[in-house]
Amino acid sequence: MSEIDLETARKVAHLARIAVPEDHLPALAQDLSHMLTFMEQLTEVDVDGVEPMTSVTPMRLKRRKDGVTDGNMPARVLANAPDAREGFFAVPKVVE
Question: Is residue 34 part of a domain?
Fold first, then answer.
């Protein structure tokens, strides 16, 4: 069983940019120790012959024809543009 001391818990909190009060460090150290113990238990599981999974449910993504279109709605696309000219978005010049 892995034991995390208070100094290691303090360092982990610092690296994670989490403000942990001194009186909460013992609980954090205990929680981290429990996580490491669980991870050590997982290494004991025999996974020989088990295929890696990409999802817990077997799913197949819907497929559609891969074709280039203009979207067929230029007026709707440009409706919210602050400045549109000749069917394009108009933006301020940023390079001089």
Answer: yes
Which domain does 28 fall in, by range? Answer: 6-42
Under the banding of pLDDT at 50, 70 and 90, the label for residue 32 is very high
Nearest-5° angle of CA 24, CA 25, CA 29? 125
Nearby residues of 59 by Cβ (< 8 Å), 6 or more positions away:
none
CA distances from 51 to 35, 47, 55 (A): 25, 9, 12
Provide the angle, in degrees to the nearest 10, between the axes of the packed helices 25-42 and 6-15.
Answer: 90
Q: What is the CATH number of the domain that holds 17?
A: 1.10.20
The pLDDT tens digits for 60-85 are: 888 888 888 878 888 888 998 999 99
Q: 38 in a domain, yes or no?
A: yes
* Number of domains within the chain: 1
